[in-house]
Structures are given as C-alpha cells and as structure tokens.
Design brief:
The complex is a heterodimer of chains A (338) and B (567).
Chain A: H1 2-22, H2 27-58, H3 65-86, H4 88-91, H5 93-120, H6 129-150, E1 155-156, H7 161-164, E2 166-169, E3 172-175, H8 176-198, H9 200-210, H10 212-217, H11 222-248, E4 250-251, H12 257-270, H13 275-297, H14 309-323, H15 331-337
Antiparallel strand pairs in A: 1-4, 2-3
Chain B: H1 2-33, H2 36-39, E1 44-46, E2 50-51, H3 52-70, H4 75-101, H5 113-119, H6 126-147, H7 150-168, H8 170-178, H9 181-190, E3 191-192, E4 195-196, H10 198-215, H11 218-228, H12 231-283, H13 292-306, H14 317-339, H15 344-363, H16 368-371, E5 383-385, E6 388-390, H17 393-415, H18 418-428, H19 430-435, H20 440-466, H21 476-489, H22 494-510, H23 518-532, H24 541-552, H25 554-563
Antiparallel strand pairs in B: 1-2, 3-4, 5-6
Classes of the chains: A mainly alpha (338), B mainly alpha (567).
Chain lengths: 338, 567
C-alpha cells in the first residue's frame, strides 16, 4: 500500500521538476494559478463547512448538501436576471449583489432545514447505512425537482462589469471577482468561527457534536441544535453558490455534484467534523487543483492535463481516505472514533 | 378541566387538519410545477377522462384524507379529512389564480397555460370551484378508507389499484391479451385506443372488489392445504412452477414484439447489474457507489478487443468475453484492496471517487488513442453462435436471459453457501464476524470480485448490444439506478432485484414521458423506502423476519446500534 503512495509521490516530484525546469510557465502564470486556486478553494471551504458540521453532530455524510448548494444560486439567478434587465445591476451593483446573495442564502437554508426535518430526523436512530441511502435519494430528488421547476438548460449568470477587470492590490493584478470571492468567503468563515467559538449557541452546538446524550442532560435542545447546524450549513452553501456563480458565470441543476464531492474531499482532508479543518482542506484542495495539472501532470507529458483536474481531486480523496482517514487536523476524532 | 382539555384537543386537531391540507396542497403545487401533471396529462388511464397526471393529484388528496382520518377514525375525523382535501384544492386554485395574473413561466418553465387548463379541467373559471370539490372528494375517499372496516378497505384499494395498474401498463397488457385469441375480444371491450373504456374501468373495479371479498380467508386455507401436501408433491409442484416460468420466459419475446423485447433486454441488463451489486451491497453490506466502473470496464474491454475501428486485436465476442470478466475481477480486487478498512459512508464516497476517475480517464484525450476519448468506440461486432447472430432485440434477449439465469443461479447458490453466510455476518457486524473466524479480507475481496465479474459480463453484453461504447453511458447515474433498484426490491433478495429492475427500469421504458422524471422518482422512492419500508418490496425472508421482530423492540435495537458507529 505504501509503495503505491511512494510511486505517486515520486511521479509528482518528477513531473514538477520537469515542468519547472522546462520553464513553460512564467511567474505570472503561477501567480494566476495560485489566486485562482485560493478563490476556488474558499468556495470549497464554505461548502465543506456544511458537510463537516453535519458530520460533527449526526455522524452522517449529508450527500444532499451539494443540492443545498445548487438550490440557492439557481433560485437567485432569476433575481439576478431581473436586476440585470431592469438595469439595477449596473447602477447599484453592490446593493443588488447583496439581495441576490440574500435570496440564495435563504433558499439554501430553507432547503437544508426541510431536508433535515423531512428526511433525516425520523432516521436519527436508524442503522448507519439507512440515512446515507436516504441522503443519496434526497440528493437526486432535489436535483430533478429543480430541473423540473427551472428547466434543464444552463442559465448564464449576468456579468457585473467592474468585477471583470483586473484590480491593482499590493502591486498585484487580480481579477475583481476573485478578490470579492476571497474576501467574502474569509469574512463569512471568520464570522462562523466566532459564532461557534464565542456564543452560547455555538457552545451548545459543540456540546451536541461532542456527545448528544450528555448535551441533552445539560438542558440543551438537541433537535434545535441539529436544525441550527443544517441552517448554518445551508447559509454557507447558499453564499458559496453565489460566489461560484460569480466565478463560473452559469448555473445548472447538476452544478452541485462535482463541487459537492470536492467539498466533501476538502472536509475529509481537513479532518471531518473539524471546522477549521474544513476551511484549510478547502483551500488546500483549491491549490492542488489549480496548480496540479500544470505543475506535475504536464511535466509527465500528459496531453491536455486540465481534463484530469477532477481526477486529481478524486484521487486525492481516495488517497486521503486510505492513508490518513482522520485528515490533517483530525486528531481529536481519531482518538474517539477509529 | 375536562372541557378545557377537550377544547384544547379540538383546536389541536383543527390545526392538524389545516396543516395537512396545506402540506398536501404544497405537494400538489410542486408536482404541477415540476411538470409531471402536464407530462402525464395525455396519458390516459380511463380514456379521455382521467389521465395519469390527474390521478397523481387525486392520489395526493386521497393520501392526505387517509392520513388525517386515520388519527381517530371517527365521523369528525372524516369531516376533517374532507376539510384538509378542500384546503389542498384551494392551494392548488391559488396557483391557477396567481399563474393567470403574473407570468410565472419566466421562473417556472412548466407553469404554462396548458398546465392551468389541465388543472381546471378546461372549464375556465368554473374549474377553480371544481378543483376544491375534487380536493374534498378525493380526501373524502381517503378518509372513508381509514374509517371503513379492513375487509372493505382492502377490496376498495385493490379495485382502484387494478384499474390504475391496467391503465398505466396498457402498452404491455394489450399486446399480451391480443396475442391469445379468446381474450382478444375481451381486450377490445376493456381497452380503447388510449386507455380503458368507462365500462372496462367500472367492470374491472367491481370484479376486483368482489373477487377480493370472495377470496378473503380462502387464501389462508389454500396455503394451509399446500402445507398439508406431502413433500414429494410439493416439490413436483415447485418444479412445475419453475418450468412454467421458464417456458413463459422463452416465448416472451415472440409474443411481445420488437419494442417490448427491447425493453426486456434493458431490464435484463439491469437485472444482471443488480444481481452483481446485490452481492456487494445486499449480501456483504459494502455500499459501492462506483459500481458503474466495472460495467464500463466490461464494455470497454470488449470494445477494444473486438472493434475493427481500433484494430488492435479483432477478436470475436466470445473470445473477448472471458477477458472482460477476468479484467472485471482483477479491477474488483484492485478497488477492494485500498478500501478494505473503510466502512459505510467512507466506502461509499471512496468508491464514488473511483467510478468518476475511471470515467474521466476514459473521457480524457490522454488515453484517446487506446479508448477513443469522447467519441467512444464503434463497430463492435455482434455475438454469434455457429451461424446464429444475436442482433435484434429478440435475439439478444436470449443472450441476456442466459446471462441472467447463470448469474441468478450463482448468486442463489452463493447465498446459502458458507461464503454467503460469511458475507451476511460481515454485513450485520464486522467485528463479531471477525471474532467468529471469518477472514474479512478474503471475503470482502471475494464480494467485490464477484460483483465486478457480473457487472463486467453485463457491460460486455451491453457493448455488443449497442455496437458502440461512449464514456457518457457510464456516469454515476447508472450506479444510483442500480442501487435504487436493489433497495426498492429488497436488499439481499434475488427476486427483489428482478422486481426492482422491472419496476424501476421497465416501467420508465414503457412510459416514455416518465424518462425526465425518472431520477426524481427514484430519489423519492429511496427516501420513502428508507422511511417507510426499509426491507424493500420483496424482502429476503430472514431479513423480513428480523425487521418485523424488531418493530416490537425498536428502542432496544436502535440504542444498541448507536454503541458502535465507527467510520
């Protein structure tokens, strides 16, 4: 098993070395890749929060979280399109973006809350495979419900012009929307971290994820805390959805699937159940994905390495699950569960 | 105090009625807006009167009424049911009114004038009143079901169920009836061009209701009489049954014609896949979401080895088949080794990752010279024995039937063997199984390998059936379809796989409108099965006994489960 890991590591080193020595990409390229990776990674991190928090309290993978992520921006698209046609998006970009963000977060939160109430709550004490299968079912149900509601085509998100230009920040030229994504994600993650660490509700949440029975004995309403967990996850996913739409400029009913799995990878990477871990894991995955293809696949002489971008993420997932299922920051969980 | 308590209870019940009505109305609006009502609006159960779309909405009303009235089963509860139905109807009315006032269609693509016309039964403004009445009516029927004594309830449910089944399956039932002289005239009487006739529907209802009432109690006596027979006769009877089923299966494509045979071949392929996954998930309890990878490996092996388009080997199908299966086994073991230590959800995600990796690799330009990239591989020759070529669906059917029979017998023999029992022990509790001396590594790898072999066989047949393979045929949806069919049929149950495949693959093929909503319904079915009937439609006897036994001691069992929840 370890020999496979060794071979992979060697391949990565050889690939990177040959790319770097060939000098195909300039420093400018690498900087762009890094910023792109950071932006992409922040989105993954926001989604990963939902996976990790739900896993923390329920010990289940909320497979349908990718659809929670999709529902928000897809619904908010119609608001954005309306603002675009009415000219509001150009005259008051900040205000209209905030409304779009709010609509997206509300929708995702609502979907997440309903999901928990209808599909997961009755199964809380069921054997482990049962909620997982339910989650898979709910995921496809939601996907195709939204497809039925809004149609099966790609919808192009309206473009906000000031965000498409390069901004000069600290002497670096960065695309506007990437700045917005990174800043917005950082602010939200900070807020969430403070909420969980400093408020009374946050404390109760941590208590529930530590031990449900004891938390209940201490007078904590476990059902309510689980609902709140889903609500927070939904809010983060809804926000991530709008940022994702800013980046890729389109929404689709199937858009949640790949980011969902990647965010899950990020959550596992950081140690599932661990909130800072999810943030770190997301950003790490973003870097790997944006740097990886050109860094080591290209060097190995693979044609069109970008097509294998997703394969890198999945390989990463499998490797982490095999070699370090507790993730980077998963020490606490390792002692308790493994 | 007593009065107060009574009053409070009344208020609570009133609130429940309103809530149920609103929920039912919401569901009806959702079903309408996702387009199901419209899509099924032209598919009639009773010709030109009730379409499947209408039946869907009525069904929601009936269910709501039943659930409300079940609470107390009194006259008042019945009234509550009617009220809930009325509210549901009113909510749907609201949709029509709102839809006529503002252009909902800009957001909800299915909120078309056609939908509103269907909802109001083409009666314009009067239709709104009719909607409320229909809501009340359907809920009243549901409420009556709950209040009726069991005997009549069963008769009524069967009567409606038969009519709906005949209506939905008309494309299957009609050719079957027409094929046999004496009943052909009968078929003319019951069916019109696009559904049952009114007389046919009413006649069926009465006949089925009477039949149910008559059969009541007799079924039990019949079973007892069967039990009373001596073992030799019973065995002979069973052999007779099997022979009869086999004979029917052999002549089936000749009766059904081209289109339905094609449906059968698709169902057959899914049965093959389902039987394979059933070993991995149903027997050994290893949730594998990347199962489609083996299907792809089987298909691509045959394609690469036989297709003259690539021209590497140009083998025949029969020479390529063993290689495909062997590669399936090898890849099953290769996938199995790294995930040996994982359980439950981690295993699911890791296998999902594998499945996607295979698909992305096949799709990539990197492997294009060998696997054809996005264009796939074409010109895969048909299989043939002697001079007989498996080309048309009717001919392919026999190839698939042979495959299914082989795989079915293997799984059936495996299930009762030492290996099968070891798998089931692992499914129930890995640690205990290991303590009992079961070699976890060997058994798990064997499960992966067997499942992969079946899947590769199915893939090989799939390749020769289509004559070409594309990476897009092997997406994660296939894995989900297969998972869904074995769960609906009953995990671990071999007949369950066949029932599941017929219901989840066959039915959508018959109802082409259904194709768009297939995964929606699958998803809902998975959730509903897990919430209501986790043992499946045709459960394995042992499992059924377990689950029914458990229902008495629910608390105890679940609290035990909570103890060991390692990932």
């Amino acid at each position: 098993m370890w020999s496979i890991g060794g071979i992979l590591l060697a391949l990565i080193v050889i690939g990177s070395w040959s790319t770097l020595s060939s000098g195909k990409y300039s420093a400018r390229h690498w900087l762009d890749f890094t910023i792109f990776g950071l932006a992409q990674g922040s989105i993954y991190a926001l989604i990963a929060l939902g996976y990790t928090m739900v896993y923390g309290v329920l010990r289940m993978i909320n497979f349908a979280h990718s659809e929670v992520f999709m529902s928000g921006p897809y619904t908010a698209y119609f608001v954005a399109a309306f603002f675009h046609t009415s000219g509001l998006l150009d005259s008051h970009p900040l205000l209209s973006m905030l409304v779009v963000l709010l609509v997206s977060m509300t929708t995702s939160t609502f979907v997440a809350y309903l999901l928990e109430r209808i599909a997961y709550r009755p199964l809380r004490t069921a054997p482990r495979l049962v909620p997982l299968i339910t989650a898979i079912g709910a995921s496809f149900f939601l996907q195709y419900t939204f497809r039925g509601l809004y149609g099966s085509g790609f919808q192009a998100y309206p473009v906000i012009k000031p965000l498409e230009r390069h901004w000069e920040i600290l002497g670096l030229r960065i695309l506007g929307f990437q700045v917005v994504i990174i800043v917005a994600a950082a602010v939200m993650m900070m807020a969430l971290y403070l909420f969980v660490q400093k408020t009374k509700t946050g404390k109760a949440l941590r208590a529930v994820s530590e031990d449900k029975e004891t938390a209940a004995l201490m007078g904590i309403d476990v059902d309510r805390m689980i609902s709140i967990t889903f609500i927070i996850g939904g809010m983060a996913a809804g926000a991530a959805g709008v940022l994702y739409a800013l980046m890729f400029k389109q929404v689709h009913f199937f858009m949640g699937f790949i980011p969902g799995i990647k965010a899950f990878t990020a959550a596992v990477l950081g140690g599932i159940g661990n909130i800072p871990g999810a943030m770190l894991g997301g950003i790490f995955l973003g870097f790997i994905e944006s740097l990886g293809p050109s860094l080591f696949l290209d060097g190995l002489g693979i044609v069109a390495p970008y097509q294998l971008k997703d394969a890198i993420a999945f390989t990463m997932l499998v490797l982490v699950l095999i070699f370090r299922p507790t993730g980077i920051l998963g020490e606490r969980l390792a002692v308790k569960k493994a | 105090m007593g009065d107060e308590e009574l009053a409070r209870r009344k208020v609570r019940r009133g609130k429940r009625v309103i809530k149920s009505g609103l929920v039912a109305g919401g569901v009806a609006v959702l079903v309408s807006l996702i387009g199901m009502v419209e899509a099924f609006g032209q598919r009639y159960i009773v010709a030109d009167i009730i379409s499947i779309g209408h039946a869907l909405l009525l069904g929601i009303g009936v269910l709501a009424g039943y659930l409300v009235a079940r609470e107390s089963r009194s006259g008042l509860a019945f009234l509550g049911a009617v009220g809930a139905g009325g509210i549901a109807g009113a909510v749907l009315c609201l949709l029509v009114v709102v839809g006529n006032l503002i252009p909902l269609r800009r957001v909800f693509i299915n909120a078309s004038p056609v939908l509103f016309e269907l909802l109001t039964l083409g009666q314009g403004n009067w239709g709104i009143g009719i909607l409320v009445l229909l809501g009340c009516g359907s809920a009243a029927w549901g409420g009556a079901m709950a209040v009726f004594p069991q005997k009549y309830r069963k008769a009524a449910i069967n009567a409606v169920g038969w009519v709906v089944t005949l209506g939905v399956l008309q494309d299957l039932v009609r050719p079957l009836l027409a094929a046999w002289g004496p009943v052909a005239d009968f078929s003319e009487l019951v069916f019109e061009a696009n559904g049952l006739t009114v007389e046919g529907a009413l006649g069926t209802m009465v006949a089925v209701a009477l039949g149910t009432l008559f059969w009541r109690g007799k079924g039990e006596r019949f079973r007892e009489a069967m039990q009373g027979l001596n073992p030799a006769t019973r065995k002979a009877l069973r052999v007779g049954w099997v022979a009869l089923v086999l004979a029917i299966l052999l002549v089936l494509p000749q009766i059904l014609g081209l289109f339905l045979s094609e449906v059968l071949t698709v169902v057959g392929l899914y049965v093959l896949l389902g039987l394979g996954l059933n070993i991995v998930v149903g027997f050994a309890g290893l949730l594998d979401l990347g199962y489609v990878a083996f299907f792809a490996i089987g298909s691509y092996t045959v394609a690469v080895l036989t297709s003259p388009e690539l021209g590497f080997f140009n083998l025949t199908f029969w020479e390529a088949l063993p290689v495909a299966i062997a590669l399936g086994v090898v890849s099953g073991v290769l996938l199995g080794i790294p995930v040996l230590k994982m359980r439950g959800d981690y295993l699911a995600i890791a296998t999902l990752g594998f499945g996607e990796i295979i698909r992305i690799l096949v799709l990539s330009d990197f492997l294009r010279p060998w696997l054809g990239g996005a264009q796939g591989i074409g010109k895969i020759p048909k299989a043939s024995i002697g001079g007989f070529e498996f080309a048309t669906p009717q001919e392919l059917y026999y190839l698939i039937l042979a495959g299914c029979a082989l795989v079915g017998v293997i799984s059936w023999r495996l299930r009762d063997s030492r290996i099968g029992r070891a798998w089931m022990a692992i499914r129930e509790d890995e640690d205990v199984a290991q303590a009992m001396g079961i070699n976890l590594v060997a058994m798990k790898l064997l499960a992966f390998a067997t499942g992969a072999a079946f899947s590769a066989l199915s893939g090989a047949i799939f390749a020769t059936k289509l004559g070409s393979v594309y990476p897009h045929s092997f997406n994660v949806m296939i894995s989900i379809n297969i998972l869904c069919l074995i769960i609906v049929g009953g995990m671990g149950s071999i007949p369950g796989v066949i029932v599941g495949a017929a219901a989840l693959v066959g039915l959508p093929e018959l109802l082409r409108e259904f194709a768009e909503y297939r995964l929606l319904v699958y998803g809902a079915a998975l959730v509903a099965m897990m919430l209501l009937k986790p043992e499946g439609l045709w459960p394995e006897a042992v499992r059924k006994r377990e689950l029914h036994f458990d229902s008495a001691t629910h608390e105890m069992r679940f609290s035990e489960e909570r103890g060991h929840e390692a990932p």
